[in-house]
Structure formats: structure tokens, C-alpha cells
Amino acid sequence: MSTLVEPFTYEFFRNAIIVAVLAGALCGLVGTYVVLRGMSYIGHGLSHAIFGGAVVGAALSINFYVAAGVSGLLAALLIQRIARRRTIGADAAIGVVTIAAFAVGLVIISKGGTFRQNFEAVLFGNVLGVTLGDVLVVVGVAVFCVVVVALRYRQLLFTAFDPEVAEVSGVRTAWMDALLAMVLAATIAATMNVVGVTLIAGMLVIPPVIARLLTDSFSRMLWISVATGAACGLVGTYLSYFLDWASGPAIVLTAAAVFTVAFLISEVRGRRLPDSAMADPID
Amino acid sequence: MAEDLVRLDGVTCRYDRDPVLVDIDLAIPEGEFIGIVGPSGSGKTTLLRAVAGAVRPAGGAVTRAPRATIGYVPQVETVNWYFPVTVREAVLMARVEGRVTPWHTRDERREADEVLERLGLAGLGGRHIRELSGGQQQRVFIARAMIRQPRLLLLDEPTSGVDVRTRHDVMHVIHELHHDGLAIVLTTHDLNGIAAHLPRLVCLNREVIAVGRPEDVITPEVLERTYGAPLEVLQHGGMPVVVEHYPEIEEAATGVAAHGREHHEHPG
């Protein structure tokens, strides 16, 4: 028992647990909208764009979180703008914008540009190395995202489900898109140190998908996704301490394991998502 | 004289550079019931969207009466049936004005249940929208529009892809709403089953070809201009009935029948 409690005697672990739980919950919250809007790939893409922006920020001596957040927001808005051209499509827009931004970062690094963040930590996550400042950033972003979602819950839901009718009903859907881009960029920038650039898309996608397997209600899906993300953050961080794994992979693998269990349960219950998605409505 | 809820004056709409609607003049008075007919790609949905305010005209003006709340019911084919949303959630998501709380109040839930009951969906609030029949699904989206207490209800092909009985049920609900004073504008491809029974029709093919009572506009001349093909119109009980001919199929069917008779008369 004392072995299990031992990590909590260290301040760095307590910080890590706080950040990982908040990051998991945050990804679960924002990821629900991302997944339901069919934008799963945007999390992966934006994390790369944010990496590029962070490197540019380092070269210009701009704060990591400011550079990461601004570059993520700009990339998300640019993707939305390009995707409006129906001949291009969102997936291609994500590919163009985010990989180009990532390439900019790599060029600067290859030219010997300074990047004060631990390169490996940014790529793969190092929750055990977070500082009190990182904790405060994640707390701040979490509060911001919760407030935004709480105040615009119905508008965000309506826009995700039926943007055309939402617009007719008085919802400013373009503003909702921008708001979601803002929340998503802030989430990725703040949690990048926890799960890393390469794995953050997993935490944005897996908890909502687990929740979707377990419920047909949006409000319940949101709660289950947040709780699952937080639990995976907690368990994954614990595992990374004892198994000496990088925190990002440990958290994502925990989420993948939960997904496997949820999928098997839903199979047994006959509620496998692809089946329900493919089936015709009852006549 | 009923007040015009929406008025279109010389409205032109384009997608990219292609004109979809050209110089449309149309008034929708309070309590009116209008059907819009026309071939695929004639601009029916765009016209509804222009009335609703979802499309900004490239030319002309759309004038809406103050406080003329509009309810919009899209084609059910456009609905994402994978989306995790219960019937009550689908209805209440349209309550967006002046609300800041993410949860629904007791009054809102009661209001949603009342609308659902009015549309024959009592007790289905907790069901996922995919778990309903075609007619019930259509009524959920009418309920979502009704929760906003509109004065004008726009329905885009409310009976497409449903069987005759479901079509009857849906039209019965729509007629009841009209009877209660709601102005209705719907699009349809069904000339005999729906359009011929409506008080007023708009025949559309990028421009307004004709406006009037079904007996005045369902004529061979107007239909040929609207659909670009000759259509026969008969009168049945004082109502126009459009007769569709498929010469190749009829010829083939006649040939098969003749061959069958021949075969029957000369076995072996």
C-alpha cells in the first residue's frame, strides 16, 4: 500500500497527477465536439501546427504557451476558411495548413534555431517534468474551456448537429466555429507537455469515442468523456511512474485499453456503434 | 388583409457563380399555406433558405416582419442519425435565445413534452432519434421548429422517401398546425399526393413560372415550362391529376403482355 502512495510524497508527482487529470478531462470535453463534428484529424494536425508555432515563438523569444496558442488558433481559423471552398474539403485543408506549419518548425530547428522546451517532451509528453507554472496554465485553460462550453453549450451543440438550422434559429455558427477553434487550440497548447504532439490526437478522440459507445445522449456523452479522460490521465500517469514509460504513451495506451473494454461491452450489448450508425431507421 | 411575414423582391441567389434563383418576387402572408414545386435543381431548397435567412441573396431584398419567428425543418436525409441526441435533446437544442445555462429548466422540459405530445410523440423524449419510425422522425424536427413558437414554418420535402400512410400522417400534422394559424411553406416533388391539395402553389425553375391555386397552375402549359417536358393533366373530382408516361416501359410492358397472350394461346 505504501508503495502505491509513495509517489504522492513527491511534489513533482502531485503536479503531474493534477495536470494529467485536468488535461484528460479537458481533452474529453473538447474532444466530444471535435469527434461529433467529424474533425478527429484536426487534433492531430493542429498539434503539429502548434509545434511549428512554438518553435517560431522560441526563435522570436515569445512565451511558449502564447506562441503555441496563437499559432493553433490561426491554423484552425485558416483551415475553416480554406475548407469553405467546397472543391478542397476540410481534410485536405488540415493537411496543407498544419503540415506546412510543422515544416516551418523543423526548418528552424534544422537551422540551429533555439527551442528551449525539451524537444522530446514536446513530441512524446513528459508529465513528470511539469512545473507549477505548467499546472497553472492547464488550470487556467480548463476554467476557460469549461466556462465557454457552459455559456455556449446549446449553441455549440446545435451547430455541431445541424449548422444550417442553427443559423436560421439565430445561432451565429461562424462564431461558434471560431470559439471551438479557440478552445481546441488552447487545449492542445496547454496539454502538449503532458501527452505530446504526436499523441494528443489520441486523447482528443479516444475518450469521446468510448463515451459514444456507452450512450446515445449528448449530455451523458459529454460527462462520460470528461470522466474517462480524467481517469485515463490519472491511471496513465501512475503507470508511467511505476513502469518508467513516457507519460504520453502511458496515458494513451490506458485510454486505448478502456476503449477495447468499452467496445467489447457494447458488442455484447449489441450496441456496436458502426452497426447502429449503418442501420436504417426503424420503419 | 393579412400581414406579409416575409417578402422577396427581385431576389437572385448564386452558389459560386451559378445563379440558382433569378429575380424572385414572392409574398408570404400570415396564415398562408404555400407549396413549392419544381424539378430537382430548380432552387426550391435555396428559396426556402433565402426565406429563412440562411442564404444571403446576391441581388434583391428579403424583408421579414418584425418578430416573425421562422421555424425551419430540413430534409431528413440531411440529418446525422449517428449523432448522440435524444428526442428531447433534439427539440430543446433550438431553445438558444437568451439562455445561458447548459441544462434545461423544468419549464423548458415541460414545454418540450407539451410540443411532443401535440405532435403525437408523447413518451418518446428519452429515445434516440434513430429509434423512431420515419413519420416520427419527421415530427421530431417539426417539434424542434415549433419549440421556437414560429409564425412561419418552412419544411423542405417533408414527405420525401416515406410511404403513403406516413405521408398522410405527416401532412395531417402539418395541416393541423396550419389550422392553428401557422403560415406554412413546403417544397415537394409530389404533384398529385400533396401539391394538388394545397391552397396555393409556386411553380419554380430558377424563376417563378406560375403562382396560384393548384387548378390554375397544374396545367400542361405551366408544367412543361416548369419541368421542361410535356405532362398530361386530367381532371378528377375537380382536381388536377398529373399523368406520367414512360413510353419505353409501356412499350416493353405491352410487348411482354402480347407475347404472354401469344404464348398462352399457342402453347408448345
Query: Are there runs of chain B of 5+ residues with pLDDT below 50, and where?
Result: none
Radius of gyration of chain A (Å): 19 Å
**Proportion in β-strands of chain A:** under 5%
Report the span from N to C terminus of chain A: 57 Å
Topology, number of strands of chain B: 11
Structural class by SSE content of chain A: mainly alpha
Discrete helix count of chain B: 8
Provide the gyration radius of chain B in Å: 22 Å
Q: What proportion of the residues of chain B form beta strands (DSSP E)?
A: 25-35%
Shape of chain A: globular
The span between the termini of chain B is 75 Å
SS field, number of helical segments of chain A: 14
Characterization of the model:
- The complex is a heterodimer of chains A (283) and B (268).
- With 283 residues, chain A is an all-alpha fold.
- Chain A is built from 14 helices and no strands.
- Chain A has helices spanning 2-5, 11-36, 40-59, 64-83, 90-110, 119-124, 132-151, 153-161, 163-168, 173-195, 200-214, 218-243, 247-268, 273-278.
- Mean pLDDT of chain A is 86; it is low at 272-283.
- By secondary structure, chain B is α/β, with parallel strands linked by helices.
- In chain B, a hairpin with a 2-residue loop joins strand 1 and strand 2 (18-29).
- Chain B is globular and about 75 Å long.
- The model of chain B has no long low-confidence stretch (mean pLDDT 88).
- Classes of the chains: A mainly alpha (283), B alpha/beta (268).
